[in-house]
Amino acid sequence: MIDLVLPSVLETLYMVFFSTAFSLLLGFPLGILLVITEKGSIWEKPMLNKVLNTIINLLRSFPFIILMILLFPLSKLLIGKTIGTKATIVPLSIAAAPFVARVMESSLKEVDKGVIEFSLSMGATVPQIITKVLFSEALPSIILGVTLTIINLIGYSAMAGSIGGGGLGDLAIRYGLYRYQTDVMIVSVIVIIILVQSIQFIGNTLAAKINKK
Amino acid sequence: MISIQNLSKDFTNGKEILTAVDNISLNVNKGEIFGIIGLSGAGKSTLIRCINRLEEPTSGKIFIDNVDLTSLDKESLRLMRKEIGMIFQHFNLLSQKTVYDNIAFPLELNGENKDQIDKRVNLLLEYVELTDKKYSYPSQLSGGQKQRVAIARAIANNPKILLSDEGTSALDPRTTKSILSLLNRIRREFGITIVMITHQMEVVKDICDRVAIMEDGKIVETNTVESIFREPKTKTASTFISSMSNTIEDEVINPKDFNGILIRLSYLGNDANQPIVSKAIKQFDINVNILSGNINKLQETNVGHLILELTGDDDQISKAISHLRNEDVHVEVLQ
Ligand SMILES: Nc1ncnc2c1ncn2[C@@H]1O[C@H](COP(=O)(O)OP(=O)(O)O)[C@@H](O)[C@H]1O
Ligand SMILES: [Mg+2]
Question: In chain B, which residues have their Cβ closer than 8 Å to the Cβ of A210?
Answer without folding.
Answer: 96
